[in-house]
Structures are given as structure tokens and as C-alpha cells.
Amino acid sequence: MLHNLENAPGAENKKRRRVGRGPGSTLGKTSGRGHKGQNSRSGSKRRVGFEGGQMPLHRRLPKRGFKNIFSKEFNVVNLGDIVECKNLKLDGTINSEVLADAGLIRDNKLPLKVLGDGTIEAALTIEAHKFSASAKKKVTDAGGKISIIE
Q1: Domain that includes residue 107, residue range
Q2: Would you tell me which of 18, 20, 71, 113 could form a disulfide with 31, CB atoms 3.0–4.6 Å apart?
Q3: Which residues fall within 8 angstroms of residue 108, CB to CB, at 6 or more apart?
């Protein structure tokens, strides 16, 4: 199988272009580098984004925003979404694995936080890493239980 592989037609090795070999080659004298200047010299390198000494674009644009390095990301689910989800059975314990299978969260690698938006009548047992105050109140008022995962 591998011993039968061949190059596509026209993909054979090309001869390398010899520069600086006289005017007949179209790449004689300055070898395609133009006259004088930084890039005509040997050893010339320019960094990415260099604009010839002009203030580069990444420095002309203003800095915006702030990234909090201590922030934690959560999978966030509202109580209303849990109650209204048709793929979810409300009889057992509801945790991040169950919610991921139902499609309410993308993956269960991030910690889970339950928010209190929506109404709830069923007594649910919910396991999560965090609960909002309104979510705790609504679940316990409906006769359910919450368990916080450490």
C-alpha cells in the first residue's frame, strides 16, 4: 500500500531559482530585492506586525477591558429550565451528569451553579457546587433537598 504511493503529476522536484546570475535571468544584479533599504541587506528580518517604523496597528488601537484572573467559570442552569426540560426525569437526584445527558449543560467538567429563575412545584433533590439564595429558597419551599458538592 505505502510502497505504491507516488507524487501527483507536476509535483516533481522543481529546480531552485538561482538569483544574482546576470541580467538574462531576470533575477540578476539586485536579485529581486530592489535598490537599497532594510530588506535588500543580508540578514534582514522584520518582526510580525512591523510597519516600517510607523506606529503599528496593535499599538494604535486602545486597550479595552479587564480580565479577572481569579474568576471561576460555572455551568449555569435555572430552576425553570430544569422543570420545563422534556428530556429530564424529575424523580431521582439531579446532578451535572443528568443535566449533561438532558442537554441543559454542554459538559460536566465545569462546576455547576443553580439559579432561581422560574417556578418549581415538585420536590427535587439537586446536587450542585453552588446555589443562588433564591434557588435554595424555592427548592426547600417546594419540599426538595439541596446538596452542595465540595
Answers
A1: 75-148
A2: 20
A3: 75, 96, 97, 99, 100
Size (the chain), residues: 150
What are the Cα distances from residue 120, in Å, to 33, 58, 67, 77, 117? 74, 51, 36, 14, 9
Q: What is the pLDDT of residues 97-145, one digit of tens each?
A: 999 999 999 988 899 999 999 999 989 999 999 999 999 999 999 999 9
Tell me if 118 sits within 8 A of 79, measured CB to CB.
Answer: yes
Summarised one tens digit per residue, pLDDT across range 19-40 is 999 999 999 999 999 999 888 9
d(CA 68, CA 25): 59
Cα(54)–Cα(46) distance, rounded to whole angstroms? Answer: 13
pTM, full prediction: 0.58
Alpha-carbon separation of residue 85 from 99, 114, 120, 137 (angstroms): 10, 15, 12, 21
CATH of the domain at 79: 3.100.10.10
Is residue 140 situated within a structural domain?
Answer: yes
What's the pLDDT score for residue 112? 96
